[in-house]
């Protein structure tokens, strides 16, 4: 609790009129004043008159003079005890009143431009709640250590200051912040100016210019392209002024890159009026023209853009992220892009790179990815130094819903309280207040490297899109909106009244903007056309390249042995767990070529060889450090120390002196936000192997929007390349419905246009070559790996060190058993994944020497040439059986059968062996799992039956 000091000023000064009234009342009727004051005035009867006589003087001036003298000398002891107690209570009450306005003042703030809500009854904001009466209004209190303003103030003035600060156009929420320094900083910024802007005439004109641009674009499009969807910003024009202020002020304070994420509301306005997209380019999109180099493309209000703009601190690079209609899903993508840019610059705290996220009120409150993304904010692997959130709060949500149906919280922004981010609610019809709130929010982010929210409460003039009629469901609201003159008009009239602009200047600005639109000119001045930062990444070497499976991924044997020694060496006095000690010892043996490599060692050598060659690696997931199945052990823990920073050692960070970075992060328990983050990272950094590993493969279900809207389709919609790797543990080992399938079929269904790769490697050498291929080839495509579980320790899946020193990733692995005579083969069993080893064992048990087994390691793009070459080795086979662990309606069967069938010759037959179709990915009973597994293996070796295709 802050300490507070008060003087005896209640005896004189500003309280004199009150004391005089009390004294008058006492003279008329001593019983009409409080006991403590009556006792005091009784004592005053003994005060000598000014003229020196003994007769009490009832004139006021001598009485006040006496009060002043008494104040200097100290009150009579028997009287001041009760008076000091009462004043002590009032001092405490003043402190409580100040706190109440800091906590609750936002509830009385004038935030709604439509004035539809009645002010709630909040007794704590009334002086009477604390026992104050009208008679107390002129008592002077010393508030120097409690409130940021003058040292002393009457209760009347203090109350006015509190209401100006917290109850006018800005409603602040921040008292839940636990850091006292942050609270005091916000209190000072708000209270020292009473939340009242004091801008220069030039600043005011600039604000009007931005409002004119925001309104001008919408009205121009409305008349030129009648009825076309654009998700208008009309009613929320102050947002453009806010965004402009954020960018310009950030640039002035040293920020050099800003990544913006937003949904479609107002997006066209941002493209033209903030980023400087040429209006004629936007008009071309309205008129149906499109980019010929994109196979699919996207609607105009999902498009991204980048540009460089001038600020007082120098050029700032702006990137507006591409975003689908899943609104808030762009949030983690933006954060990941920012993190990549920070890492590239060596920007540890976000001083140079900053994210801005723009939200709609209903989506901000309603979509879970918002919470997931917020939860990343202060973590080490995902923190970006704080995000500036701007809410375009049109009070009606996504269509024409009642706010009572949009959320269960008081404010749409209440979710940010989970990370103690302050919120500044502001009336969109007060543009100067919007700018002041924006300045405070940005400065807070830069000072404390924390998230902050500006909630611009406005309205939506038109429907959700321009073809809607919202008055059907919100008649009274839209009657008010119909009468609203517009924020620009209100502000222009205000500036005319102030004398800041002339009577015709506002209309002249409107005409000038329209003329610029007609001419197709830039509306942002100045956009820098020839600036290129030294931190910019050149994606050109990776774009427009023909697909190839080939890549020289072999590493010389001597280098492999050196790398193996580095990743199995720990510092002196570092005590690893006995189980890990055994793993490291085995890996050292593997690294000398004396033991076949297991999966973990193959993976480690891939990472080690990449970082040694200058490719950075970023590996994240809920158990990324050790691996969900305890196979990786990338992070070693000293058994004698528990502190994370002092008690861990990461061998892959100690490969060579000038190596690239290796980062392994145990993520928060999130799929959607973390996968979105890693996708965003990969789109901004082509030279980093960016990997997200699911704890179990089907946990990626929780991130399906990221997979559908970004990973699989981002390149064909937006030309946005990504080399993101998804590792999804997959395999049927009797662990039930949620821990068996990574939903392979879903990824294959999304495959087209060579958009991504889906693979299921089965040996340690394969994962080594696959991970290296992802970086060495000069193109970037998402890679989905169905990683194994039981194969992690299956000795049959091991590889000799020599296989890493030669060859490359094999998209198809043909028959490897030398005892199989190709000419005697009557049936080829094709498969992918763990089931291969089950088939090999079954063939051995049956002595089925006339059956060959071929593994398809890359399921998409389908390796037609490699697969056909393997089939040609068996000139006499007539049957091909596709065998899989998954149910028939899942797995690869329905997506791969046409590719297999295409490679058969006339008369050859194609059949299926696997589990029957099922609504669930796997059974939960182990005995039933075992029976199904036995049955599908038997089917693979039995006479063809059921569904058979003949070429």
Automatic annotation (TrEMBL):
Q: Which cofactor does it need?
A: thiamine diphosphate
Please cite one Gene Ontology biological process associated with this protein. glycolytic process
Q: Does the keyword Oxidoreductase apply?
A: yes
Q: Which InterPro entries match?
A: 2-oxogl_dehyd_N, 2oxoglutarate_DH_E1, DH_E1, KGD_C_sf, ODO-1/KGD_C, THDP-binding, Transketolase-like_Pyr-bd
Family of the protein in this entry: Belongs to the alpha-ketoglutarate dehydrogenase family.
Concerning PANTHER family, the annotation shows:
2-OXOADIPATE DEHYDROGENASE COMPLEX COMPONENT E1, 2-OXOGLUTARATE DEHYDROGENASE
| Protein name per its UniProtKB record | 2-oxoglutarate dehydrogenase E1 component
Source organism per entry reads: Noviherbaspirillum denitrificans
Catalytic reactions of this protein: N(6)-[(R)-lipoyl]-L-lysyl-[protein] + 2-oxoglutarate + H(+) = N(6)-[(R)-S(8)-succinyldihydrolipoyl]-L-lysyl-[protein] + CO2
């Amino acid at each position: 609790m802050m300490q507070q000091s008060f003087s005896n000023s209640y005896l004189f000064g500003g309280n004199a009129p009150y004391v005089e009234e009390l004294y008058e009342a006492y003279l008329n009727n001593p019983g009409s004043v409080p006991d403590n004051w009556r006792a005091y005035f009784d004592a005053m009867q003994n005060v000598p008159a000014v003229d020196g006589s003994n007769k009490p003087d009832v004139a006021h001036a001598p009485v006040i003079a006496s009060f002043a003298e008494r104040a200097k000398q100290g009150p009579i002891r028997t009287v001041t005890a009760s008076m000091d107690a009462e004043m002590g209570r009032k001092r405490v009450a003043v402190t409580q009143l100040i706190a109440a306005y800091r906590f609750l003042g936002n509830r009385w703030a004038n935030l709604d431009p439509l004035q539809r809500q009645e002010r709630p009854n909040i007794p704590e904001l009334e002086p009477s709640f604390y026992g104050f009466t009208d008679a107390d209004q002129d008592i002077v209190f010393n508030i120097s250590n409690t409130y940021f303003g003058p040292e002393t103030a009457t209760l009347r003035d203090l109350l006015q200051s509190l209401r100006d600060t917290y109850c006018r156009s800005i409603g602040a929420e921040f008292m839940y912040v636990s850091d006292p320094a942050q609270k005091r900083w916000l209190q000072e910024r708000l209270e020292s100016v009473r939340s009242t802007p004091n801008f220069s005439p030039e600043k005011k004109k600039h604000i009007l210019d931005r409002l004119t641009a925001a309104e001008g674009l919408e009205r121009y499009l409305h008349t030129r392209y009648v009825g076309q969807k654009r998700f208008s910003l009309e009613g929320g024009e102050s947002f453009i002024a806010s965004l402009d202020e954020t960018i310009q002020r950030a640039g002035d304070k040293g920020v050099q890159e800003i990544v913006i994420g937003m949904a479609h509301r107002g997006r066209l306005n941002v493209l033209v009026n903030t980023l400087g997209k040429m209006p004629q380019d936007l008009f071309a999109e309205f008129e149906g023209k499109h980019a010929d180099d994109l196979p699919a493309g996207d609607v105009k209000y999902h498009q991204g853009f980048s540009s460089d703009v001038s600020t007082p601190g120098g050029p700032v690079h702006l990137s507006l992220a591409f975003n689908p209609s899943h609104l808030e899903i762009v949030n983690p993508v933006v954060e990941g892009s920012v993190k990549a840019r920070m890492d590239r610059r060596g920007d540890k705290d976000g001083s140079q790179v900053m994210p801005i996220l723009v939200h709609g009120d209903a989506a901000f409150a309603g979509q879970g990815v918002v919470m997931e993304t917020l939860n990343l904010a202060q973590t080490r692997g995902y923190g970006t130094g704080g995000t500036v959130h701007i809410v375009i709060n049109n009070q009606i949500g996504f269509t024409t819903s009642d706010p009572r149906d949009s959320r269960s919280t008081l404010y749409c922004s209440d979710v940010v309280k989970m990370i103690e981010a302050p919120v500044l609610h502001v009336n969109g019809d007060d543009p100067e207040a919007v700018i002041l709130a924006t300045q405070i929010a940005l400065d807070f982010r830069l000072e404390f490297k924390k998230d902050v929210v500006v909630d611009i409460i406005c309205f939506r003039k038109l429907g959700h899109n321009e073809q809607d009629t919202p008055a059907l469901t919100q008649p009274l609201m839209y009657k008010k909106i119909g009468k609203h003159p517009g924020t620009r008009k209100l502000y222009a009239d205000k500036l005319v009244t102030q004398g800041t602009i002339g009577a015709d200047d506002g209309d002249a600005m409107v005409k000038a903007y329209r003329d610029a639109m007609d001419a197709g000119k830039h509306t942002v001045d100045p956009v820098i056309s020839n600036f290129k930062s030294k931190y910019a990444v050149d994606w050109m070497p990776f774009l427009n390249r023909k697909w190839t499976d080939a890549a020289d991924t072999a590493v010389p044997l001597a280098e492999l042995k050196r790398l193996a020694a580095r990743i199995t060496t720990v510092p002196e006095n570092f005590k690893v767990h006995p189980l890990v000690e055994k793993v490291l010892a085995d890996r050292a043996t593997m690294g000398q070529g004396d033991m076949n490599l297991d999966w973990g060692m193959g993976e480690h050598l891939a990472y080690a060889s990449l970082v040694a060659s200058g490719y950075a690696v970023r590996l994240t997931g809920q158990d990324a450090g050790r691996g969900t199945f305890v196979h990786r052990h990338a992070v070693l823990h000293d058994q004698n120390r528990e502190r994370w920073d002092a008690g861990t050692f990461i061998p892959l960070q100690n490969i060579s002196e000038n190596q690239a970075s290796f980062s392994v992060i145990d993520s928060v328990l999130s799929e959607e936000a973390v996968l979105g983050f890693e996708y965003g990272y990969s789109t901004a950094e082509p030279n980093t192997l960016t990997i997200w590993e699911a704890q179990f493969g089907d946990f990626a279900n929780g991130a399906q929007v990221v997979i559908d809207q970004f990973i699989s389709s981002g390149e064909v919609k937006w030309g946005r390349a990504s080399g993101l790797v998804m590792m999804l543990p997959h395999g049927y080992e009797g662990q039930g419905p949620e821990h068996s399938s990574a939903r392979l079929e879903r990824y294959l269904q999304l495959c087209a246009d060579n958009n991504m790769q889906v693979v299921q490697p089965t040996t340690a050498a394969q994962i080594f070559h696959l991970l290296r291929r992802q970086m060495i080839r000069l193109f970037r495509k998402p890679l989905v790996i169905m990683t194994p579980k039981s194969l992690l320790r299956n000795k049959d899946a091991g590889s000799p060190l020599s296989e890493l020193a030669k060859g490359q990733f094999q998209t198809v692995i043909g028959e490897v058993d030398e005892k199989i005579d190709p000419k005697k083969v009557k049936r080829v069993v094709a498969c992918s994944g763990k089931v291969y080893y089950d088939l090999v064992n079954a063939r051995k048990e049956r002595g089925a020497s006339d059956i060959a087994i071929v593994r398809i390691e890359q399921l998409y793009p389908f390796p037609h040439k490699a697969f056909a070459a393997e089939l040609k080795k068996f000139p006499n086979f007539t049957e091909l059986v596709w065998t899989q662990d998954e149910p028939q309606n899942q797995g690869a069967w329905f997506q791969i059968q046409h590719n297999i069938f295409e490679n058969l010759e006339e008369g050859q037959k194609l059949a299926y062996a696997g589990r029957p179709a099922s609504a669930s990915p796997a059974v939960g009973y182990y005995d039933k799992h075992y029976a199904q597994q036995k049955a599908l293996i038997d089917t693979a070796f039995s006479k063809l039956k059921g569904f058979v295709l003949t070429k």
